């Protein structure tokens, strides 16, 4: 018999307790996704926001109230141990991803971990190994490359997989932001290697490396790279330990990550790829752009116009050929069946509801979620090869498969 009908008119079904560690920008975005997904998509399991964890008891309580979490914890180990938590959602800086995700998997929980998977290849390898062991126990582990879940990106993958572009020749991606142009932006955790692992490379470059491999359906096998840190010292953030100065100036610290990464490479098929990730592109707020050129056609996309996909079909007669704008809002476009009528656009936040939807379905069906921790490890290996190449002044560096 179906579960009892709840006041909201939906069959109760089994619930899926979510426990989230971290509540800053990604925590807020994931909370929105978990709150929304069950009200938009018909799911086999109903996510409930069981608990959120943060070190500051007062701040995490305020975050729980704001984002709709039922309980709070101040130690992630206590969150992992909760009986009402089935999924641990890791929304912390990269230096704690491995410790939390591995412990959660070994405690029998499913895991969603923000990108990049880890700060080092060694950590990512340990996470992927823990996920493989957990998979044998029926547990799911997903890494949060949310831009795969922009409907236009999921549809672009369909077009490439269906051969509409033919053999790929070029995959070209840039991800431009400008929040570090101001030299007085403080030395926050994203600017310190021990916390973030890398700078624009892991923060933004991880997204476009994952998208390239996802859209092309094949791995990057080698890269040539340059990285640069343009602003090497910044003011310490308010509240930093008094007198802490990792460099000459009092109250200032040393930036230990890249501001920008520029790299080219090859896909396994021989197609050429090019990437640019920077947080120094004045005027560009969240400008992830891509163009894919194949033997039979091309695709182009701009995240700042994320409901649109430009498609050039080389099969068209020359007289009528040209890039056309596909408005990716039709009910049979990926994810759109659950939202609004055609033309009623979606946004950045919807990608987190799509991510939650796909994870819930994977958990219910026992399928391995995509992108998996193995996919996250593949990205980590590309990032490491980029840094190795940059240290050798752009010498071509193979990516271990
Ligand atoms: C900051 O650069 C940031 O929040 C990234 O960390 C996210 O992954 C990206 O989606 C938006 O920008």
What are the salient characteristics of this protein?
401 residues; alpha/beta; Rossmann fold; Dihydrodipicolinate Reductase, domain 2; 2 domains; 9-stranded mixed β-sheet; 6-stranded parallel β-sheet; 17 strands; globular; disordered N terminus; binds alpha-L-sorbopyranose
Protein model, in words:
This protein has ten helices and 17 strands. It has 401 residues and is α/β, with parallel strands linked by helices. The strands form three sheets. It has a nine-stranded mixed β-sheet. Helix 1 packs across helix 9, helix 4 packs parallel to helix 5 and helix 8 crosses helix 10. The termini are far apart. The N terminus is likely disordered. The chain binds alpha-L-sorbopyranose. The site of alpha-L-sorbopyranose has 5 residues, from helix 8.
Structural class label:
alpha/beta
Helix content: 25-40%
Distance between the termini: 48 Å
Q: What ligand molecules are bound, each kind once? A: alpha-L-sorbopyranose
Q: What's the total count of β strands? A: 17
Gyration radius, rounded? 22 Å
Please mark out the parts with pLDDT under 50 across 5 or more consecutive residues, or reply none: 1-12
User: What is the CATH H-level superfamily of the largest domain?
Assistant: Dihydrodipicolinate Reductase, domain 2
Largest beta-sheet characterization: 9 strands, mixed
Q: How many distinct domains?
A: 2
Beta-strand residue percentage: 15-25%
Q: Give the rounded overall mean pLDDT.
A: 94
Helices and strands, in order, run as EHEHEHEHEHEHEHHEEEEEEEEEHHE
Strand order of the largest sheet: 16-15-14-13-7-12-11-8-17
């Amino acid at each position: 018999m179906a579960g009892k009908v709840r006041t909201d008119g939906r069959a109760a079904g089994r619930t899926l307790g979510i426990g989230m560690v971290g509540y800053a920008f990604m925590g807020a975005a994931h909370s929105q996704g978990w709150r929304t997904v069950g009200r938009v998509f018909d799911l086999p399991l109903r996510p409930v926001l069981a608990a959120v964890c943060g070190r500051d008891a007062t701040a995490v309580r305020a975050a729980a109230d704001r984002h709709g979490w039922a309980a709070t914890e101040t130690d992630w180990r206590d969150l992992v141990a909760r009986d009402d938590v089935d999924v641990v959602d890791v929304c912390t800086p990269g230096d704690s991803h491995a410790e939390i995700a591995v412990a959660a998997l070994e405690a029998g929980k499913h895991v969603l971990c923000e990108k990049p998977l880890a700060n080092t290849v060694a950590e990512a390898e340990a996470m992927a190994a823990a996920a493989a062991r957990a998979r044998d126990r029926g547990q799911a582990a997903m890494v949060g490359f949310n831009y795969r879940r922009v409907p236009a990106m999921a549809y672009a993958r369909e077009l490439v997989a269906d051969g509409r572009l033919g053999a790929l020749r070029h995959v070209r991606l840039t991800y431009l932001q400008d929040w570090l142009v101001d030299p007085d932006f403080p030395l926050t955790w994203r600017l310190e290697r021990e916390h973030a692992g890398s700078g624009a490379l892991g923060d933004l470059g991880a997204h476009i490396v994952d998208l390239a491999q996802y859209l092309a359906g094949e791995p990057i096998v080698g890269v040539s790279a340059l990285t640069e840190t343009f602003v090497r010292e910044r003011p310490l953030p308010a509240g930093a330990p008094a007198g802490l100065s990792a460099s000459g100036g009092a109250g200032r610290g040393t930036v230990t990550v890249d501001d920008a990464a520029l790299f080219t490479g090859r896909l396994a098929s021989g197609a050429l790829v090019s990437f640019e990730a920077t947080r120094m592109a004045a005027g560009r707020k969240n400008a992830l752009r891509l163009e894919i050129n194949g033997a039979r056609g091309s695709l182009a996309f701009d995240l700042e116009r994320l409901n649109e996909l430009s498609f050039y079909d080389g099969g068209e007669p020359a007289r009528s050929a040209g890039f056309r704008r596909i408005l990716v809002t039709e009910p049979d476009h990926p994810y759109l069946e659950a939202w609004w009528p055609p033309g009623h656009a979606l946004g950045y936040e919807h990608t987190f509801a799509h991510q939650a939807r796909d994870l819930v379905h994977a958990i219910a069906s026992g399928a391995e979620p995509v992108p998996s921790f193995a996919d996250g490890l593949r990205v980590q290996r590309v990032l490491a090869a980029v840094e190795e190449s940059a240290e050798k002044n752009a010498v071509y560096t193979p990516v271990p498969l």
